Each structure stands twice: as structure tokens, then as C-alpha cells.
Amino acid sequence: MLSTILLQAAGMGIAKLGATIGAGLAAIGAGIGIGLIGKGAVESIGRQPSAAGEIRTSMLIMGALIEGVALFAIVVCFLALFQ
Question: Measured at the alpha carbon of residue 31, what is the angle toward residues 18 and 43, in degrees to the nearest 5?
């Protein structure tokens, strides 16, 4: 019942509401993923400091891949929002 009231008050359709929620979830998911990568990298460097260069390189590559996927998801949600 609350969702129907919110939809009527905002004047948005179900598709637009889904697109905005999807964009928010994509941003939150990317933030959590990058946080976990950073946490794992710091722990790994703390355990084996001699491999810091390799761990840092892998961390940056994985962070860039997550950012790319999140950006793609947000663009798809925004395209759905403005159609």
C-alpha cells in the first residue's frame, strides 16, 4: 500500500521506479565490491609484504573492472528511466 501511495505521489511509473532502484543498487554493489577488494589487498599485503606490487596491480585491475560493470549498469538504468 505504501508503494502505491509513493508511486502516485511521485507521478512515476513502475518502470521508472525500477530504474532508479536499479541504479542505486548498482552503485551500492560497486561500493561494497571495491571495499572488499581493498580490504583483501590490505590484509594480503600485511601477511606478505614482499608481494605488495603484484597484489596492488591485481587490486587496481579488479577495481577497474567493477567500476566498468557498475557504470554500464547505471547507464542502462538511466536509459530505462528516460524512455
Answer: 150
pTM over 0.85: no
What is the DSSP secondary structure assignment for residue 8, as one 8-state letter? H
> What amino acid is encoded at 72 in this protein?
F
Write the single-letter amino acid at 75.
Answer: V
Q: Which amino acid is at 15?
A: A
User: Can you spell out the DSSP letters for 32-78?
Assistant: HHHHHHHHHHHHHHHH-GGGHHHHHHHHHHHHHHHHHHHHHHHHHHH
Tens place of pLDDT per residue across the chain (83 aa): 556 655 555 566 777 778 888 888 989 999 999 999 999 999 999 999 999 999 999 999 999 999 999 999 888 888 887 77
Q: Using CA atoms, how far apart are residues 47 and 53, in angstroms rounded to an integer? A: 13
